[in-house]
Amino acid sequence: MSNTTPAPVATSRKASTATPTGEYLNADTSHGTTTVDDGVVAKIAGIAAREVPGVHDLGGGAARALGALRQRVGQQDQSQGISVEVGETQAAVDVKVVAEYPIPLHHVADGIRTAVTTAIETLVGLEVTEVNVEITDVHIPSEDDDNDDDQPSRVQ
Questions:
Q1: End-to-end distance of the chain based on CA atoms, in angstroms?
Q2: Residue 151: enclosing H or E segment and its boundaries?
Q3: What pTM did the predictor assign?
Q4: How is residue 73 annotated by DSSP?
Q5: Mean pLDDT, contiguous 10-residue spans, the chain (156 residues)
Q6: Where does residue 31 rank: exposed (0-12), middle (13-18), buried (19+ CB within 10 A)?
């Protein structure tokens, strides 16, 4: 399903500071419509979620494995771990995330909700009804994450 901006329609928003879709994306909708694909909304949500302190990665185990393969060939799926449901004026988002240890998980989840809501409402103009965060894992920094280039090889 795609988000299509109809001709100017009065919408009521509760305490939202975002500009309505018709005004932000295309001020003169009498000359046409603006369509925002669900994938674009998911990508915006993914970029916003990645910028939150305490987010190590997005997606569950299988999605992260596929993402690692994509990264090796020079591509990155910004919408990995993101699922969106987009209507004409509203969007709902589900985010799967791997959090950094020892950052409190509720701080990470709150940060994701705020960042994703702000990004979608500002860039797309949709009202975000909910952002569900599922923390699938916790990344624990260790010596294994460091580059082993500093240590001499045990074999020649």
A1: 57
A2: none
A3: 0.69
A4: T
A5: 51 40 54 89 96 93 54 69 94 97 98 98 97 96 62 74
A6: exposed
